[in-house]
Every structure is written in structure tokens, then in C-alpha cells.
Design goal:
42% helix; 23 helices; nucleotide-binding; disordered N terminus; disordered C terminus; ATP-binding; binds magnesium ion; hydrolase; 21 strands; binds adenosine-5'-triphosphate; alpha/beta; helicase
Length: 565
């Protein structure tokens, strides 16, 4: 822990310091990737509490994923020590849940209400047909709520009860929201109820990284912040501490045609004249693309021959002999279906991989089964250890069968859900209901272990907010990134392309030291092998920023015939 109060702002640059020490009232921090948003946010909270006498229990910090919430919590603990415990840190869902818990009866819920699991949700949905109203009525009859209810029920409640609004506005006088560009309408309404128009609401984010409109997020709430919250102060952070200058220049050029930020600026804090250019590899095929990734990783970690092939594990000393370890490397792709070829090639070469998909944890069949078992075991009482043991036994028995209740369960599911290897078990403590709720409200699989000695495989959506020394962005092809769905309406095309370009921008800006972009000349898509062209997103980047690796001329069937002739 740092010495509280002294030099809290010393580790921030001038603009970060302005943001962190701004007085109360609405505050919007517009900040590009790698400009230190989380750092600034946590230091602001710490500064307010340690220097300005704001009570930690009056503070509410909201993020979108449990992982991000956990990170905020850790950094606040480090800055403030024990005091940080009194700060409410959570996701929108967990904040909604807390409000609902305190007011269940007023919200029309019975004594035994709980969050429906996926099976229960499906059953009620099936009965209700397409009728959302009927579906909710069915849930309520069984005293169940779903995830949307966790936010919409508190919103409805607060709208009807001005006294309750007052109570919560008094309770949380300081509200902080990270990634504000990704709020949806209901979350926005909740914030409007929790914070008066002139309240101490601090929102931080980057409109150019808004990538969740497909699930209802709308960047307009970010863009009109200063209309909704009176006399909002605006601070911009423009210094990027993450990426080398060539990587940052490429990213800035890539976003330019779709940027939502007036006068967007992003200046490199890193000015190493030796920084390598962005590697660009035109692959002949998907297999060739995967081989390139393997070969390059081989070079980077100083020769894969050091690995122990038997165990598939890597001797950490041999990895250290190269300058990088596998965990410093990420392979990013637009759709999960692209990961197969990469996983296969890396695994064949003996490279350990860990994959993080954006599938919601709670939606995974295996997790559902495990949660059900845990709930059952929980009903039996006894200590956490006893319950976990019992659950493990039940699962071990059932595991002998290929499926559980017709649902496939993998060992990975078990570890993901119970996480008995890792700190989650500690967090569960003896609070089983809370653990189950965490599973139910977890926005995504948070299973990526930064310490695992493995190459990280992620979708672009899942990579948001993360950083890696080495990034491969594969499949930079027209139709794949931007992704085009067959039958997409003309009207939606322009907006879709803008959002896909933001996704491309998110991908490029994950890289710290080395960035590689690849595209394959041929790929199996929509049921047949197709010829692919590089994404037009690459065309707006100055070719001087690329180092062209390999020189594969895409072999068209026609060319081949010509050569034969
Ligand atoms: P993103 O939009 O991708 O989520 P971000 O704005 O949240 O990015 P951070 O992840 O907080 O950025 O910071 C990026 C990197 O820059 C981190 O490694 C962080 O430690 C470093 N950094 C931020 N501010 C400073 C600073 N003032 N001095 C040195 N390093 C800094
Ligand atoms: Mg961030």
C-alpha cells in the first residue's frame, strides 16, 4: 500500500492529474486507448477519499464486467488500504441486484425470489412464445428474475418512489462509471435516477471504442453527457502510454474515417526510434496464416525446441532465454470460428494456449449444470469445503457419462465455474448464494489467467481493455473484418462498418511493442471456399508504417491455369 495521502497524484501526468483532482459535479473524461483511464479513475477516487474527506461508503464505482470490477477493487485496495472496502464497486448488474435485494417486496417479488438459470429462462420463454410480457409474467409467477430484470426492476421501482431516489442519492453521492460509451438505455436510466443532473457523476470512456451496439449499447449517451448533466466539466487525455509510435500511428489512421471524437488526438509517450514497424503478412491460405503465427512466435520466444513436448508445458527458464514469454502474446480474431486453425497449429507445435471467448459464462451448458449441482449441495448445509467436496464427487461420478442431462460438460467448464485451482475459491468464502449470483451476473467468461504461461487467444470483443506486448490480428479480410452477414440491410451497412472499424481500432491498440496483421487469400466461409481480399480498413494506413513479411501472391484459379498453359 502506498502511503495514504502523500503524493497520490505524483504518478499521474498533468492531464490525468487535472481529471483526478477535478472538483465535484458532473465530469466527463474522454480518453483514447492506453491513456490510463483506469489509473486515473482509481486515483481520483483515492484522492477524493484520502485528501478531500469524501466518505468511501458514499462512493459507487461501476464497470461492465466482473473482471474490470475486480481490477478496480484491487487497485483501490492498493491505493487506500482497508478503507477501500467501504467503496461499492460492481457491475451494473450487481448494483441493480443490491438495490433489488433491499427492496424486493416493493418491487413485487416474493420471499424466495432468485435469479433464473438458463434452463428456467428457456422454459418460460418457450411457453410465452414471442411475448416478452407473458414471459416476464411467467417468471414472476415462479418468483424468478432474469438479468434484464436486475436493472429494469430497480429502474421501475425508483421511478415510482421519489423517496427511494432520495435515499440512494444520499447513499451514493459520488458515482464513477468506466467505459461509459457502452451504456444501454436501461443502464443510462438507472444512472439518471441515481445521480441528480448536477451530481458528482464521473464518466470515463472512449466513443471510438464503442463496440456493443449489437446488444443495445448506444454511444449517444456518451456524446450528450453535457446536455444530461448540467455544467459538466470535460477533460481529455491524449497521451498514450501503451503502444510504440508506429503501432499508435497506424491505429490513429485506421480510426480516422469513423472517429466520433472531435479533434481526436493520441500522442505517443513512447518514442523509441528503433521501434519495429507493423508486420503485415499476406497468407495464401488459412493454414499458411496459422503457420506464420507459429513461426513468428517461435522466433519471438527464442525457439520452441526448448519446450517439453511430453507435458506440453514450457520450462520457464527456457522461455526467459528469449525475451518474451507465451503469456505476452495474444492472437485476436473477429469470430470465434477462426480460432480453430490457430489453436490446432499452435498445439501441434507444442505451444500452450488459453482461449477466452465472449460466451457468457452463465450461458455455458456445463456451467449451468455445475451451478445447479452447487445449489443442490448448498441446500444440504455444511461448510463450503464440505459442499465443494460433495459437488466434486457428484460431478466425478456423472463425469464418467459423456453427457449430463444431455449437456456436454468439459473439465474446463468445471474449472471455470468452480475455479478450485485459483483465488475465486477464496472469494466464494462461505457465501454460496453470492457465488451463484456472481455466476448468474457475470457478464462474460473471466477465465483468462494473466500469469498462465500460454498464448492468449481472444475475440476482438473480449480483448477490450487488455494489453499485450505482442499482438497478432488475424483474418484482416473484407467480409470478415468488417464482418458482413448475408442479407444485412443496406440501411444498416454504414453504421455496421463504422462499428467494425472501431473494433479494428480496439484490436490494433491492444499491442504494446509488436503488432502483426495477417490476411488469407482463401477461406472457407458460408459453406464454401472463397477468395478473400484484404480489408479496406488497411488501405487508409500509410504503407510506410508496414513491414511486408512474406511475399505470397494470391494464387487465383485462373492464374494457375495460365501457368499450366
Ligand atoms: P483502454 O482504452 O484500452 O482500456 P486505458 O485508457 O484504460 O486503455 P490503461 O490500461 O489504464 O489505459 O493504461 C495503459 C497503460 O499505460 C498501462 O500499462 C498503464 O500502466 C500505463 N500508464 C497510464 N498512465 C501512465 C503514466 N502516467 N505513466 C506511466 N504509465 C502510464
Ligand atoms: Mg481501460
Amino acid at each position: 500500500m502506498e502511503e495514504v495521502g502523500t503524493g497520490l497524484l505524483d504518478r499521474l501526468d498533468a492531464m490525468q492529474r487535472v481529471a483526478a483532482s477535478a472538483p465535484g459535479g458532473p465530469l466527463l473524461i474522454v480518453a483514447g486507448p492506453g491513456t490510463g483511464k483506469t489509473r486515473t479513475l482509481t486515483h481520483r477516487i483515492a484522492y477524493l477519499c484520502a485528501e478531500l474527506g469524501v466518505f468511501p461508503h458514499r462512493c459507487l464505482a461501476i464497470t461492465f464486467t466482473r473482471r474490470a470490477a475486480g481490477e478496480l477493487r484491487e487497485r483501490l485496495d492498493a491505493l487506500l488500504g482497508d478503507v477501500a472496502e467501504d467503496i461499492t464497486v460492481g457491475t451494473f448488474h450487481s448494483v441493480g441486484l443490491a438495490i433489488l435485494k433491499d427492496n424486493a417486496r416493493a418491487a413485487g417479488l416474493g420471499a424466495h425470489w432468485r435469479i433464473a438459470d438458463e434452463g428456467e429462462r428457456d422454459e418460460a420463454r418457450e411457453q410465452a412464445g414471442d411475448d416478452d410480457h407473458a414471459y416476464r409474467k411467467l417468471l414472476r409467477q415462479q418468483d424468478l428474475v432474469d438479468l434484464d430484470d436486475l436493472i429494469s426492476l430497480p429502474v421501475a421501482l425508483l421511478r415510482d418512489e421519489p423517496a427511494l431516489v432520495e435515499k440512494y442519492r444520499k447513499r451514493w453521492q459520488w458515482i464513477f462509471v468506466d467505459e461509459y460509451q457502452d451504456v444501454d438505455e436501461t443502464q443510462y436510466e438507472l444512472l439518471r435516477l441515481l445521480s441528480p443532473p448536477d451530481g458528482n457523476l464521473c464518466a470515463i470512456g472512449d466513443p471510438d471504442q464503442a463496440i456493443y451496439s449489437f446488444r443495445g449499447a448506444d454511444v449517444k449517451y456518451f456524446l450528450r453527457f453535457n446536455e444530461d448533466f448540467e455544467q459538466a466539466r470535460l477533460v481529455r487525455l491524449t497521451r498514450n502510454y501503451r503502444s510504440s509510435a508506429p503501432i499508435l500511428a497506424a491505429a490513429v489512421q485506421a480510426i480516422a474515417p469513423s472517429s466520433l471524437v472531435n479533434g481526436r488526438r493520441l500522442d505517443p509517450a513512447r518514442l523509441d526510434p528503433e521501434a519495429p514497424l507493423v508486420g503485415r503478412y499476406p497468407a495464401a491460405s488459412v493454414a499458411d496464416e496459422a503457420d506464420f503465427v507459429v513461426r513468428t512466435i517461435d522466433d519471438l520466444v527464442g525457439g520452441l525446441s526448448h519446450r517439453s513436448l511430453d507435458s506440453g508445458r514450457v520450462d520457464s527458464r527456457s522461455v526467459a532465454a528469449g525475451n518474451l514469454s507465451f503469456s505476452d502474446i495474444a492472437v485476436l480474431y473477429r469470430t470465434d470460428s477462426q480460432s480453430g486453425a490457430i489453436v490446432e497449429a499452435l498445439s501441434r507445435a507444442g505451444v500452450p494456449v488459453q482461449k477466452r471467448s465472449h460466451n457468457r459464462l452463465r450461458d455455458r451448458a456445463g456451467v449451468q449444470v455445475i451451478a445447479r449441482e452447487l445449489r443442490h449441495a448448498g441446500g444440504l448445509g455444511g461448510s463450503l469445503a464440505a459442499r465443494v467436496k460433495l459437488t466434486a464427487q457428484v460431478l466425478a461420478q456423472r463425469f464418467a457419462a459423456p453427457t449430463l442431462d444431455g449437456e456436454q460438460v468439459t473439465p474446463e467448464d468445471i474449472w471455470t465455474a468452480a475455479d478450485l485451482l485459483r483465488p475465486l475459491a477464496q472469494r466464494i468464502g462461505d457465501d454460496m448464494p453470492r457465488f451463484l449470483q456472481e455466476i448468474a451476473t457475470g457478464a462474460e467468461v473471466d477465465a483468462l489467467d494473466p500469469r498462465a504461461e500460454a498464448v492468449n487467444l481472444l475475440t476482438l470483443h473480449a480483448a477490450k481493455g487488455l494489453e499485450f506486448p505482442v499482438v497478432f490480428l488475424v483474418g484482416c479480410e473484407d467480409g470478415l473484418l468488417p464482418l458482413r452477414w448475408p442479407g444485412a440491410s443496406e440501411a444498416s451497412v454504414a453504421e455496421t462498418i463504422a462499428e467494425e472499424r472501431r473494433l479494428f481500432f480496439v484490436g490494433l491498440t491492444r499491442a504494446q511493442d509488436r503488432l502483426y496483421v495477417t490476411h488469407a487469400a482463401r477461406r472457407f466461409r458460408h459453406g464454401s471456399e472463397r477468395e478473400q481480399t484484404p480489408t479496406p480498413f488497411l488501405d487508409v494506413i500509410d504503407s510506410g508504417l508496414f513491414e511486408r513479411l512474406g511475399d505470397v501472391v494470391p494464387a487465383r484459379p485462373k492464374d494457375r491455369q495460365l501457368r499450366l498453359l
